[in-house]
Amino acid sequence: MTDTLTAAMPNVRPQRPHFSSGPCAKHPGWTPDALSGAVVGRSHRSKPGQAKLKAAIDETKALLELPEDYRVAIVPASDTGAVEAAMWSLLGARGVDLFGWESFGRGWISDAVKELKLDDVRLFEADFGDLPDLAQYDGARDCVFTWNGTTSGVRVPNADWIPRTREGLTICDATSAAFAQDLDWAKLDAATFSWQKVMGGEAAHGMIVLSPRAIERLESYTPPWPLPKIFRLAKDGKVDHAIFEGSTLNTPSLLVVEDYLNTLKWARGVGGLKGLMARADASAAALGAWVECTSWVDYLARDPATRSNTSVCLQIVDPWFTALDKGDQAAFAKELPALLEGEGIAFDIGAYRGAPPGLRIWCGATVETQDIEALCPWLDWAFDQVKSKG
Fold it and tell me: Strand pairing of 190-194 and 148-149?
């Protein structure tokens, strides 16, 4: 405990202080016993190993309610590897529109411009807290965007801006949105995510969802640049269909796969996709009720329609704080979550590096709403404690 105890210290503590935006909280009731059925000491290409991988793919497709003709694969290197595999394998056949408004989206822009060195590129960017003008997307071109900006808490409200009859492909980083937000799959040609976000799985594994149009691109277009092995979704001009059956591009952890299968089972038990979305909405609403009646904090996302229900990013707007120089603001914004972590109240709720100083609180489906409700008075307490020192 710290030496800053006061009568204002709340009495109720979150039962689970895990509010990290990735890896996220394990699902309620999780214990290491969830791994007891793992195929350990066996090849991932053995029949039991392959069956586990295929089950993870099939159950993901069912839970997300994907179109029947969409294909799903497990790929290396978490969501980052999945996005890179899509970009390196699919881009270059057409001009591309790139949208970025937070750290990861800007990273995909950098890869397209500086690494792939694409010639026909249009950039649409916005500062933290805003969306760029999505209506500028030209359906004759390819498109790369992030559905939910994990580091800014700004998401696209819908896919109405994507033409259903487009000629280009849409590549969507959906890692903080899948399983928590209503994705319009008919508008997405290559969508990616990792298990460590809404599902509270372990890191290092990503998933990629491909539409028939994306499959056709893979079989009709060969990129002009060398493709690393872990990005190769096609070989000899044909899609590697084995990856959709669980034959992964490199060696996966079957312990991690078992953990994910356990979480998929839990997800079915809480109502499937609709239940997962409802849980995230409830926690985000509980945090939002506190934000609305709290003067020292506000959403980083300026438009309510774009506010995430998973990675909720908050900025400190107290006049005392805004009058500080940037260095002192950054120090204060780090001290506040550090105090709560020291008290065992909340782990990993500081803003993402590179984002404006503030808080980032995960409200995804594995977080209990009552823990968000218990957290809020502690946020007020911590703010007063740290401010009183300044």
Answer: unpaired
Using alpha carbons, select from 327, 312, 320, 384 the residue that is nearest to residue 357.
327
pLDDT at 67 over 60: yes
Q: How many CB atoms lie within 10 A of CB 274?
A: 11
User: Mean pLDDT score of the chain, rounded to an integer?
Assistant: 96
Q: How far apart are the first and last CA of the chain?
A: 20
Query: What is the per-residue pLDDT across 217-227, written as a single tens digit (0 to 9) for each?
Result: 999 999 999 99
The boundaries of the domain holding residue 175 are: 41-267
The four Cα atoms 146, 23, 312, 109 give a dihedral, to 10 degrees, of: -20
Which residues, in sequence order, are CB contacts of 287 under 8 Å at separation 6+? 312, 361, 363, 372, 375, 376
Identify the domain boundary among 220, 243, 267: 267
The structure's pTM equals: 0.96
Summarize the confidence of residues 182-208 as an average pLDDT. 97
* Contact status, residue 106 vs residue 127, Cβ threshold 8 Å: no
Q: How far apart are CA 199 and CA 192, in angstroms?
A: 14
User: For residue 124, what is the enclosing H or E element?
Assistant: strand 121-125
Q: Could you tell me if 96 and 145 are in contact, meaning their C-beta atoms sit under 8 angstroms apart?
A: no
What CATH number has the domain bearing residue 366?
A: 3.90.1150.10
Provide the CA 33 distance to its chain's centre, in angstroms.
26
